[in-house]
Every structure is written in structure tokens, then in C-alpha cells.
């Protein structure tokens, strides 16, 4: 079962299709090839109408059903880390490689449903989008919500981020700041005449290393915050005392805090340092009290966990559309060098969604 | 007196010539233009024989004198920092701009002496060389010592590094290491599953910030060591816990320690961390007991101070040639954004050297 690249074969089984998607390298900002392949495959399906915006593809049924659901996934991955192409271990049933978990298994489920569900009980809007793994300004779903909000109108949304094929509700918010220290350049042979900005960052890293995460319980779900340096840079030349050091910090905050509250926390945490906000996205409260969320949760098994990772469910929340995370793959493996997925989870997600989307609505009650 | 670039006018006064040199941008590894200009100007002088190696120019008299001196300076500068072109303040007699202090004032003295001393009392080897401000592997004087050691044979050497037009003896050694911390990548939304290598560098910066410099007294001169981060880098992506952080550290060590002893100190200082040596150059003991050093010191005034900065006097020491630092400019201003020089110092250096090099040797006793 060697991986092939374009064109995609939507008649293949969902695992084969996952491999095809994984083997098309699609690091954020380099989604042209995979988006072209997805668009071509969906355009070939007469029961769908397809729209493209940038490298984001939308395919919709238009059957006049009483309700519409969105099923969405992102096409990009974090940078390659010596983990492509995919490798399938038949003995364990595990598919290895970048994007297997986050989230091309989910994308394959979406494409299989799109190809085969010509008469679903709800109208369906399939969304496969670009640039989820980087700064929010590039996010394809965000851009789509701004340029074509009508395309995202729905009664319920499912985001197929990895959740071990279980339902994960809500999501934590995320923001990034640059924490900057300043000094004064001097020749490093007479360092006492300058002020070393990198040494000045010691206290920034000390505070980060000593950070104690808040773990609030919301709707019975325990969230888990985080505050981490994700980048550091400084230095002018090998013999110059550096006059600037910049620590890029990512804060993940539970959905009981707004973006403004989270930023205030970070500013207080780094009191005495220069803090500049570069990127921010809100969390989403679990919203398990909404009927649409309840119905889906019951249909696929009933268990719900909190979502730690920020996901685009927050974008649906902002649009007033109830949304949950539900997809194959262990979220703990996302972004790790040895990222992998149990193919059984991909198959189960496809089956459960297919059952829910083909079972007449009266039987779902 | 607007600065002009090539060709250089060696008949101009030494201050005008300094400006001409400053206004030819010559950051390390970009010395082609200035070396071309220097070579052309020296080739025009019939009493000198000129040799070029890379962007290093050597010009020699060959008068059969009993003794030979080397007078040397580097042509490169640290990176531009919004401090070009030069600016002359007539009210204060100060010339501002990158390289005014380190060390185009000294280079101008060398070129003026080369142009005008047709009958010096010692044979003279003038050396204007590339790449002093960066890793030793590129250093033009080092390369010349390896490719053409005969060109550096001499009884005494003067290196025109900034020393406030006084004599600075010996020099401190310098070495660079990379101190590396390692961690484990994970998605930053579930940071507790990874290990943050940047947070792991907090202890490295803490030790640096707490460093207490050694100040040994050698031959009556007090040296002053240094240990500084000159660069830091780490980070994979804005949502990934980084698995590596690298701090580049520059250690300046007094000349009573060998390179090996200095490295052992650094390794012990960072015990528990991964330390990799990237660059090293030895210090030079003051050597004030040598007759050639004594004679020159007496001729130019008698005062001697220790040299903190590493300079290529160490390369002459290795070749068995006594050498001192003597040049215009305050070394505390080298590599600073507001680098400048009192033009009176440039003029004094030219005059003192001219007197020494034209006074018959019996009168020097």
C-alpha cells in the first residue's frame, strides 16, 4: 500500500486515503498542492457544490433538509521533523508520520463522507482549510468566516481535531506575547561597559520555569492552562554585548477567561518587563447544555472530555454555532516527532458519523 | 571635507584619510572594496613592494636595515548600526561613525606612514588585513601567518588597535562555546507532556548573570576577564514546546591562562550542561621585559596599560615577535553605536611613530 500523491482516490478506504493525504507534504503556508488535490476530488462529485477561497475548500449538499451541520478539518501540519513519508505498521495497526494524528485522519473521514453520503439526513457543509497551525491571522476558517459567513451558517459543527475518537468539548484560548529585555552594546572584551540583554532575560526564564498552571473545572470538565517560551532570540555578533533579547511566550488559558483577562494575567506575570501582544484567539466554553451538542454526543457514545488545545470550535462559538471536537488520533501525539494514529480510530469515526448522518432524525431522538 | 570613497588619496592629511576609510563600508566578510582601494593606493608607491592575499594587503620597504618592524591594522568593522557615514564635529574635534575608533584611524596612520617614509630607520612591513572582528578561522593576519610566515618576520610589531594613543601590552584570550539544553517537543496546548528546552536555559543565564570576573595582576598590569552570552536561539514554531536552546557564550581570559585552562574553567562553570567549543584564540603575556618593547615604549612616552580586548598581538607572540598595541581611539568606544575618535589622537600617533621611525637608532638609546 505505498503512498501516492495527487490525484486523491476518494473511492479508496479511509486508511488508504489518510496515507495519501499524509504523503502530500503540507506545512502551514505550503498547502497549494494538497488544496489542489482536495478541490479536484470534490469537484468531481455531482451532489456537492464546491467553493474555494485561498487554499480553503468548501463543499456543500443542498437537499433542503431542516438542519445543516458543518464538518471541518485543517489541511496544514507543523514543520517536518524527519517524519515523512508515512509508515504503516501492520502488526500494530498504527500509521506513523507527520499529520497522521493532527489531522489528516480526520480529513480523510471528511472526504470519505463527502464522496459517499449523497442523501444524508442533515444538509452538510464540508470545510477543509489552510493555516490552522500558525498565527491566527492566516487561519483559513477565520478568513472564511469573514469573507463568506453564509457558508458557515449551521445548526451544529463538528471539528475533527484529534480527540481519540471521543467528544471533547470547548477549548482553551491561546495568545502569544513577546517579552523583551534591553541592554547596551559594548565590545565583549570590556563587557562591564555594556549591559547584557540576554543575561537580563534570566529572570524571564526563571519565572516561566516556576510557573504553576491553573486548572479550573467548568461544566464538570477540568481544563489545564500553560505558559511557555516557544522561541528566544538575541545577539548581534560574537564579540558584542547584545542590547536586545526577545522571548516569545505562548499562553493557553481556560475558557472561563476572556482574551483580555488572559493578557492581563500575562502582563502581571511578567511585571517589570516589556510585553507585546502578537496573536490572540479566545477559548470556547463547553456549551454542553445546547440541544444539538447533546444529540450528537449521545449518538456517538456519551463520553465527553475537556479540550486543552485551542481549536476552531471557538470560531463557531463566536458565530453562534454550537460545536464540538471529535476526531481520530491521540491529541497528546500531535506535534511530536513520533506522531501516529491507530487506524481503528479513523475507521470508527467514519462509521459513527456515517450512522448518525444516515439515521432518520426521528430515530435519533 | 565631505567623505569620498575610492580612490584613496594618501597625500591628504591623516584625518581626511580616516574619513575616506570610514566611508567605505567594510563589515567583516565584505572587505573587497576597501582592500581594492588600499591595494591600489599602495601599489602606486615605488618604494614599497606589495603582496595581496584575499583581502589582506602587505607592503614592505627593503632597505637592508638592521631591524624590521611590522605595523598592522585590520580593515573590517562590526555590523553597521545606523552609524555611517562619518560625521565630523569641528567644535569638539571629534570624528563620529562606525570604524572611526576601531580602527580606521590607525589604518590611516599606517597608510600615511607608508606613503611618506621612504627612508625609515627600520625596514617596515605594513599589514592591512581582513576579518578581525569575526571567528578566528577567517582572520587575515592568521591566514597570512600560515600561508606566508616570511612576510611577518620582524624584530618588533605594533598593532594599531585603539589604545588612546598609549601603549597597551599583552592581550586577553578569547573563546566561544555553545551551551546547549535539550528538551522534548510537544504541542504547547499540552505542554506538560513535553520538556521545554528554553525554560531549561534559565539556569544557564542565571549563572552568567551571577558571574564574578577574575582580575589577575600580571607584570604590574591588572587584567579583567569576562563571560557573556553573545547569542541565544531556540524555538520550533509558535505552538510547539521547543526541544533545543543554544546559548553562545564568549569568554575573555587573562593571559596567565592557556586556552585549555580557560576552556576547562568554562566547562566547570556550566557543569551539567552540554558545552561545545566553537572558536578559540590565546592571550599574550605583556612581555615588557623584551628590549624591543622597552625601546618603543620609551620612545612614545613610557606609560603602559593592560590590553583587555583580544588582539592579534597574540599571533605575533606565537611567531616569536614581541608586539604591543598602540593606536588612536578609546577602546571603550569600540563596537558601540556612538563610536567616535578624537582626531588629535590620530595626529599624535602619526607624529610619534614618524619621529621614532625617522630618528637614527643611536639617538634612541
TrEMBL record, chains A, B:
Pfam families reported for this sequence: M20_dimer, Peptidase_M20
Q: What class of enzyme is it?
A: hydrolase
Q: Where is the Peptidase M20 dimerisation domain?
A: 173-269
Q: Tell me its EC number(s), please.
A: 3.5.1.18
Q: Which protein are we looking at?
A: Succinyl-diaminopimelate desuccinylase
Organism of derivation = Nocardioides daeguensis
Gene name, Swiss-Prot/TrEMBL: dapE
Amino acid at each position: 500500500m505505498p503512498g501516492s500523491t495527487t490525484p486523491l482516490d476518494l473511492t479508496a478506504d479511509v486508511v488508504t486515503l489518510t496515507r495519501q493525504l499524509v504523503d502530500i507534504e503540507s506545512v502551514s503556508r505550503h498547502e497549494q498542492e494538497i488544496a489542489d488535490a482536495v478541490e479536484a476530488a470534490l469537484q468531481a462529485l455531482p451532489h456537492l457544490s464546491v467553493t474555494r477561497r485561498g487554499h480553503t475548500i468548501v463543499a456543500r449538499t443542498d437537499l433542503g433538509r431542516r438542519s445543516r451541520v458543518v464538518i471541518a478539518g485543517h489541511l496544514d501540519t507543523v514543520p517536518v521533523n524527519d517524519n515523512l513519508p508515512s509508515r504503516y505498521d501492520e502488526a500494530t495497526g498504527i500509521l506513523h508520520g507527520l499529520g497522521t494524528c493532527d489531522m489528516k485522519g480526520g480529513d480523510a473521514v471528511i472526504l470519505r463522507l463527502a464522496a459517499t453520503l449523497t442523501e444524508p439526513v442533515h444538509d452538510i457543509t464540508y470545510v477543509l482549510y489552510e493555516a490552522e497551525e500558525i498565527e491566527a491571522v492566516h487561519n483559513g476558517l477565520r478568513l472564511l468566516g469573514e469573507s463568506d459567513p453564509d457558508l458557515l451558517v449551521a445548526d451544529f459543527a463538528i471539528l475533527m481535531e484529534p480527540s481519540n475518537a471521543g467528544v471533547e468539548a470547548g477549548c482553551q484560548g491561546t495568545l502569544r506575547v513577546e517579552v523583551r529585555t534591553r541592554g547596551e552594546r559594548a565590545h565583549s572584551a570590556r563587557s562591564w561597559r555594556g549591559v547584557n540583554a540576554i543575561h537580563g532575560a534570566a529572570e524571564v526564564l526563571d519565572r516561566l520555569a516556576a510557573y504553576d498552571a491553573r486548572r479550573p473545572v467548568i461544566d464538570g470538565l477540568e481544563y489545564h492552562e500553560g505558559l511557555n517560551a516557544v522561541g528566544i532570540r538575541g545577539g548581534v555578533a560574537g564579540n558584542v554585548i547584545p542590547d536586545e533579547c526577545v522571548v516569545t511566550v505562548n499562553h493557553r488559558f481556560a475558557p472561563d477567561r476572556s482574551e483580555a483577562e488572559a493578557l492581563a494575567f500575562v502582563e502581571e506575570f511578567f511585571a517589570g518587563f516589556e510585553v507585546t501582544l502578537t496573536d490572540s484567539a479566545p477559548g470556547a466554553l463547553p456549551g454542553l447544555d445546547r440541544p444539538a451538542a447533546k444529540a450528537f454526543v449521545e449518538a456517538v457514545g456519551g463520553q465527553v472530555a475537556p479540550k486543552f488545545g485551542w481549536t476552531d470550535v471557538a470560531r463557531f462559538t463566536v458565530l453562534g454555532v454550537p460545536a464540538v471536537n471529535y476526531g481520530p488520533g491521540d491529541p497528546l501525539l500531535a506535534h511530536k516527532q513520533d506522531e501516529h494514529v491507530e487506524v481503528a480510530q479513523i475507521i470508527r469515526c467514519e462509521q459513527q458519523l456515517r450512522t448518525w448522518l444516515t439515521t432518520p432524525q426521528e430515530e435519533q431522538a
